[in-house]
Specification:
The protein contains 2 helices and 6 strands; from the N terminus they run βββαββαβ. It is α+β, with helices and mostly antiparallel strands. It has 2 domains: 30 residues, no CATH class; 94 residues, K homology (KH) domain (GMP Synthetase, Chain A, domain 3). The strands form 2 sheets. The protein has a 3-stranded antiparallel sheet, with no helix packed on it. It has a 3-stranded mixed sheet with strand order 4-5-6, with helices on one face. α1 packs across α2.
């Protein structure tokens, strides 16, 4: 895996992967790198949930995230709280097991975090 980040001007960064796909980041007028990092923990885990539920009937899937950071530098995360939401008639036990496996094994983003960062999560099922 390869990538590059170029400062364009002001507060704008252009991030590009080896396939030429890019994301523009404006750390003042858009999500900061830490906000994007927090969201990518959720994005990576949602991939695992959606793939884990592939044979089930479900609609929307989303996760609300709340990250606590150190007051001093480096202002790294100390705790991340996640509330998963799944719309559909899916077995709660299956969804919970899928989320657990995501954080234990499959989500490369959350598994790249320092082991001292506490990740808490819960699940809200929304019937259709």
């Amino acid at each position: 895996m390869r990538g590059s980040v170029h400062w364009s001007s002001g507060t704008i960064l252009d991030c590009q992967n080896e396939r030429g796909q890019s994301i523009r980041v404006d750390w003042e007028d858009g999500p900061s790198p830490m906000q994007i990092f927090l969201q990518m923990i959720g994005a990576c885990s949602i991939v695992d949930v959606v793939v884990g539920l592939k044979d089930r009937q479900f609609g929307k899937v989303w996760v609300d995230l709340d990250g606590q950071r150190r007051e001093e530098y480096p202002r790294s995360f100390t705790e991340i709280n996640m509330i998963y939401h799944v719309e559909g008639d899916v077995p709660e036990k299956l969804v919970r097991r899928t989320i657990e496996k995501s954080h234990e094994k499959y989500c490369s983003v959350s598994n790249s975090l320092d082991e001292n960062i506490e990740i808490n999560w819960d699940l809200v099922l929304h019937p259709r």
